[in-house]
Amino acid sequence: MTIERTSEQSRQQRRAITGRKPSLLASRRFVDQFRSAAAHCILIAAGITFLIPFLWMLSTSLKTNLEVVAWPPVWIPHPPLWSNYPKSLTFAPFGTYTVNTAIIVGGSLLGTLISCPLVAYGFSRIEWRGRDIAFFIYLSTLMLPYQVTMIPLFIAFKHLGWVGTFLPLIVPSFFGHVFYVFLLRQFFLTIPLELSDAGRIDGAGELTIFTRIMLPLVRPALAVVALFAFLASYRDFIGPLIYLQDDSQFTISLGLQAFQREHFTEWQLLMAASTVTVLPIIILFFLAQRTFIQGIALTGVKG
User: Fold this and answer.
1) What CATH number is attached to the domain comprising 112?
2) Number of domains in the chain
3) pLDDT value at residue 300
4) Alpha carbon of 29 to those of 20, 103, 168, 291: distances in Å?
5) Angstrom distances, CA of residue 171 to CA of 151, 225, 264
6) Are 101 and 251 in contact (CB under 8 A)?
7) From CA 270, how far away is CA 23, in angstroms rounded?
C-alpha cells in the first residue's frame, strides 16, 4: 500500500509539473511580446517627436505669409505654394554656395580617406615601441573641445596667409582625424594577422599589404568614415564663419544665415531653402543606410 501511495503521489506531481510548463511558457511569451510592443511604441513615439521639426519646416516652406503667422498654426497649407522653392533659390546665389560647399566637402573627404586609414594601419598592424602609449595620447585629444584650439589654429593659419581661402577647411583633413582613426583602427584589429603574415612571406611590403589586402577588407568602415566626414564638412558652420571673409566664398550653411539676415520676415522662403539644403543628407542616408549600419556593427571594440 505504501508503494502504491508513493507512486500515485509521484504521478500527481508529474501531472502538476507538466500542467505548469505550458502556463509558464505562455506567460513568458506574453511578457516578451508585451516588452517588444512597449519598446516599439516608445521608439515610434520618439521617431515621430524627432520628425515633427522637419515636417513643420516642410509645411512652412509651402505656406503664404498669412499662414506662417496664423494662430492656431496651419499644418497643411491650402493651397501649397510650390513656387516658394524656385523663388527662395533665386533670392541668393545658392549655386555659388553649392559649388563652394562641394569644393570644401570634396577636399575634406579626400584628405580624410587618404590620411585616416594610413594612421589607423600604423596604430593597429605595425609593431613599434610605445605604440599603445602614443595611441592613448592621440586618443585623449578627443577630450579637447574645438573652442580650445580655435584661436591657436586661427593664429597659425593667419601667419600662413590662409585666412580668406578654403585651405584651413581642407588641409587639416590630410593629417587625420582622431575619431575616424579610432573607428578604422578598431576595424583593422578584427582582421586576422595571418593575412598580413602571408603577404610578408610572399615578399610584399607594408604599403602593398595595406593597399592590396587591408583596404579591400575595410570598405564598410571606410564607407562609415566617408559618411561621417561628409556630414561634418557639409554642416560645418563655425569653420567657414571664421576663415571665409568674402560673400563669394560662402558655403550653404553661411548662405542660409545670410539669407535669414536679408529676408528675415519671409520665413516660408527660408524654410524652402533649408529643405533643399537638408535633402542631400536625407537622400545620402537612405542610399547608404545598409552600409552605414554594417560598418558600425562590424567595427568592434577589440584592443
Assistant:
1) 1.10.3720.10
2) 2
3) 46
4) 14, 56, 58, 34
5) 17, 17, 35
6) yes
7) 60
